[in-house]
Amino acid sequence: MYFNGKNAKKKVDTPKNTTLMAFFKLNCIDEFARTLLYSEIPSYYRYVNGQFKRRKKGVRLAGKLRLLRFLILLQCFISENEFVL
Length: 85
Hints:
The protein has a domain at 8-60. Helices cover 48% and strands 9% of the residues. The protein has 4 helices and 2 strands, in the order αααββα. The protein has helices spanning 8-13, 19-29, 41-44, 62-81; strands at 45-48, 51-54. It is elongated.
């Protein structure tokens, strides 16, 4: 956000609508959204016209994300315990 002495009050009073601002608004009205981190919101909501809308078909890319998390955990486990295959 760019501002100077002339437009500072206007910028503060009328902030730009961003995904972060939409996230804060969503948390004010949706109890489920309050349980999620900002990075998890796209899995359950889509951003449309300046606000988040709940996805109708559940989690986006759930299988691929689970596989990626599993591979990362496996890599951490192997490197921590120094397994040799």
